[in-house]
Design brief:
The protein has 319 residues and is α/β, with parallel strands linked by helices. It has 9 helices and 8 strands.
Length: 319
């Protein structure tokens, strides 16, 4: 199947807006690429109103600081969801993901914690992992204050954020908490192996290319030998047993498709409750294209329904 009409039209419009002389992002510096990609958030719109918004500054493991934004949809949220945004550990921020977070909060009923983890190359591995872990612990410690009651805790993320979500879920298991009711991984980066079939397929080289992923990894983990660390490549973790239930979404035309599906398969083989969907006709990053690509809305509804259902089940079990 080819990319769907909406995606093809979007890519055509992007190419026309950039012009024939535009360099691909992977030929730019990190700072230049951030500027070049910053206009995407203008396409998403403001998102729905929420009951309350909180901004907090958290202390990092190294004495530095980063920020989180809490989007509270109503007076009695049914869960707290820590959301780790995509962008290859280099690009994007919570400003570009606020519309997505607002939609997710209002549709699911969960308070959404957007994490502005620090980015490579200024802050390479393991800083994004440590910031994600700090944010998850903070959310667990503050969940009752945020939601007004003890509610289930979830972690989720897309692309590089899916990588960080997977790693923090493993850390939570290995450290005896925080207890997670579920994890949602959207086309996650789970390995540093560029030889998988989805990396080599010409039809997958659209929004995210193999060259672009090399660029991201070179910024995030510059030393190739260090990329086999399971906290960089969670597919290489010794065990995935006893992890929280997982919803895994992959895109048909995505260089990361095979490693995301390999991770879902390993979770299932390890006895984890897994729901996996490969979204047809879609490219990488389609979920974050809120109010732009129709498939984003489809996955948003699936994500929100799964979160609401899982939160209800976890709350019933706790009682």
């Amino acid at each position: 199947m080819a990319l769907d009409e909406a995606t093809t039209a979007f890519l055509t419009e992007m190419a026309q807006a950039a012009g024939p002389d535009a360099k691909p992002l992977w030929e730019l510096s990190a700072a230049e690429a951030r500027i070049a990609g910053s206009g995407l958030k203008d396409l998403y719109g403001p998102g729905p109103e929420v009951h309350n918004i909180e901004d907090h500054t958290l202390a990092g493991y190294d004495g530095g600081q980063f920020h989180v934004r809490v989007l509270v949809p109503n007076t009695k949220p049914n869960a707290v969801l820590v959301y780790l945004h995509g962008g290859g550990w280099v690009l994007e921020d919570i400003e570009g993901y606020e519309t997505l977070g607002r939609q997710l909060a209002t549709k699911s009923g969960a308070a959404v914690v957007l994490v502005n983890y620090r980015k490579a190359p200024e802050y390479p591995f393991p800083t994004p992992v440590e910031d994600a872990w700090t944010a998850l612990q903070w959310a667990a410690d503050n969940a009752e204050r945020i939601a007004g009651a003890r509610v289930p805790l979830f972690v989720a993320g897309d692309s590089a954020g899916g990588n960080l979500a997977a790693v923090t879920a493993i850390r939570a298991r290995d450290n005896g908490g925080p207890e997670l009711a579920g994890q949602v991984l959207l086309y996650p980066a789970t390995d540093s192996d560029f030889t998988r079939a989805s990396y080599l397929a010409p039809e997958n080289q659209s929004f995210l290319t193999t060259e672009f992923m090399h660029w991201f990894w070179n910024h995030y983990v510059p030393e190739p030998g260090a990329r086999t660390n399971p906290e960089a490549s969670p597919l290489r973790a010794e065990s995935l047993a006893e992890l929280p239930p997982a919803l895994v979404i992959t895109a048909e035309h995505d260089v990361l498709r095979d490693e995301g599906e390999a991770y879902a398969a390993r979770l299932e083989e390890s006895g984890v409750d897994v729901e996996h969907h490969r979204w047809p006709g879609q490219m990488h990053a389609f979920f974050s294209m809120v109010n732009v690509l129709p498939a984003s809305a489809e996955v948003m509804d699936l994500f929100a329904d799964a979160l609401r259902t899982r939160a209800g089940s976890a709350a019933s079990t706790a009682r």
